[in-house]
Amino acid sequence: MNDKTTDYWIKRYDKLNTEWSAYWSNHMQRLADYILPRKATVRTNKQKGADLNDLVYDSTAIHANDLLAARMQASLTPSSNKWFQLRGKFPKQYQEMYGKDLNDDNEVKKWFDECSDEMFAMINSSNFATVVHEMFLDLGCFGTSNMSMEGIVNNRGSFDGFKFQSIPIEDYVFSENTDGQVDVVIRKVKKTARQALQRWDKKKLHHTVLEAIEKEPEKEFQFIHAVFVKEDFDPNTKIKTDKPYGSIVIDYDNHVLIEEAGYDEFPYMVTRWSKASGEKYGRGPGRTAIDDIKVLNMSKKLELRAWTKVIDPALMVEHDAVLGQLRITPNSIIYVRDINRRPVPFEIGSRWDIGQLKKEELVSSIKRIFYSDQLQFPEQEAGDMTAREVMVRYELMQSLLGSTFGRIVSECLDPLIERMFSKMERTNMFPDRPAILSDMTDLKIGYTSPLAMAQKMEEAQAIDAWLASVMPLTQVDPSVMDVVDMKKLVRLKAELIGVPASVIRSEDEEKQIGEGRAAMQTQQMKVSQNKEEAETLGKLAPFMREADKMTAPNIGEVA
Q1: Residues whose CB falls within 8 Å of the CB of residue 130, separated by 6 or more in sequence, listed in order
Q2: Among 186, 79, 182, which Cα is nearest to 133's?
Q3: CA angle, corner 499, sides to 495 and 500, nearest 5?
Q4: What DSSP string runs through 133-168?
Q5: Which residues contact 143 (CB under 8 A, 6 or more apart)?
């Protein structure tokens, strides 16, 4: 890396940041002002600890976005249940070679289940639950979010888990490749002189930073961290330090390269709610509802002003009716010329009914845009719901958020699981991989969260409905059950409803049990047959003895 490359990344950051400031930052600031006010520092540099709610008069949008984020988290990445499962991708000839899909092999299933259990435990031991909620808040408000995923190194220098961070919308810019996938992220990082010394090599720091360490250790400096795909990366390289993704840290103020490194997987997950054609930043419910939100806040502001006029109205006083200055404080004395000409309140005639109707209309519209009414959870309903009713509610959520769910999976959850799996396997945190998986080409990820399972439940319900329609026909013609492959159906149903592989026997085990059962039945039939033959012989024995007595003299005479 040289000064030319350092200048290149600074210029590239400046260009992307100029584009962000010109086209997007104003919109994002407006969204944050009314929907996520604690992050309303996109363009406004307010003092630390300042009131960020000064434009908010109604909290409907804030609450609606909070509820949407909570529901998205509970439906996609619940902390209480494992929300993903792992399988492998193999060359097509493997199915012909082994005579089956290797993912159906019980040993393979159990290994993947053990790996996913380790990964889920790793996720729950990290700060993922807190950060992913922030990510969903950004997604609902701005339509774009960014979550970083960094490995933690302990004091012994070994890998010790993951650290997640939700990056503020104003602190990063990004670029897409030809397929619309984010492959470059340049992030603005502010650190004090003391923090810079703790994080990076002292020899790389500029002398102004080193001087500040002695005089002003809390003085802040701006750095930029760029992560990008290496176009010339050789996947067959034997150089361990050569990674598919490059990483550089630059002292932005002094144009000094601080650190050069790399990643095996892209560490940033930039997620968009939806995208308009030709745009790279996303648009979410907040962008759709912002006009209603602004009108509602203005309406509430006017309503508060009207309240003050009614509660503490202006006074009408005839000219020279009051002696001296009019004071209306408690216990004050007002001198009037004529008691019948005392001050009276000025009635403005506010139409509260019209304001209230408009307010209810706006509140309903905002809640509908944020799916507050459509996505009510069971615990928010009066009374208990049956399991079927709960599933219907998740099916409704899936139908409403299906496209968004697909984008979240492809831009956030898939990269997250793939990076975690690869990192944990490289650091030997999984059991030994079965020999049959030596040629696995890629990882195949399935999702078992409530929202993902709602997609599969339609197929499971179709199976149940089909069987329910077939069973009555067996009374007319029992042979119709020959159409149903019950064993395959049971395995498919188990997969659709997310039954763990550890409780399902493999096809080989099932075959052995079947052969053992058949052998036992054959043995029982032989025993039963021998018993019947013995009983038959026992019944014939008296007749045979009588026959022997009758034929014995004749035999003797012949002799």
Answers
A1: none
A2: 79
A3: 110
A4: HHHHHHHHHHSEEEEEEEEEE-TTSSEEEEEEEEPP
A5: 272, 273, 274, 281, 282, 283, 284, 286, 287
Give 390's pLDDT tier (boundaries 50, 70, 90): low
Contacts of 142 (CB under 8 A, 6+ apart): 28, 31, 32, 36, 169, 282, 284, 286
Secondary structure class of 445 (helix, strand, coil): strand
Torsion angle (degrees, nearest 10) of CA 466, 470, 472, 478: -160
DSSP state at residue 409: I
What tens digit of pLDDT does each residue of 431-453 get?
A: 998 888 877 878 889 888 776 66
Q: Which of 361-365, 382-386, 487-491 has the highest mean pLDDT?
A: 361-365
* φ, ψ dihedrals at 157, nearest 5°: 85, 10
pLDDT of 363: 92
State the sign of the Cα–Cα–Cα–Cα dihedral 511, 517, 518, 523: positive
Amino acid letter for position 250: I
Interatomic CA distance for residues 61 and 34, integer angstroms: 7
Contact 227, 247 (CB under 8 A): yes
Q: Position 397: which residue type?
A: M
Confidence category of residue 557, pLDDT binned at 50, 70, 90:
very low
Coil, strand or helix: which one is 248?
Answer: strand
Residue (of 209, 247, 281) closest to 28 by Cα position: 281
Strand partners, 113: none
CA separation, residue 478 to residues 242, 286, 470, 483, 487 (Å): 66, 59, 10, 11, 18
Percent of the chain at pLDDT exceeding 90: 44
Beta carbons of 208 and 251 less than 8 angstroms apart: no
Q: What secondary structure does DSSP assign to 256-308, as a single string? A: EEEEEEEESS--EEEEES---TT-SS---HHHHHHHHHHHHHHHHHHHHHHHH
* 439 neighbors 445 (Cβ within 8 angstroms): no
Q: What's the pLDDT score for residue 506?
A: 67
- pLDDT at position 431: 92
DSSP characters over 303-357: HHHHHHHHHS--EE--TT-EES----STT---EES-GGG--EE------HHHHHH
User: What average pLDDT does the segment 150-171 reach?
Assistant: 91
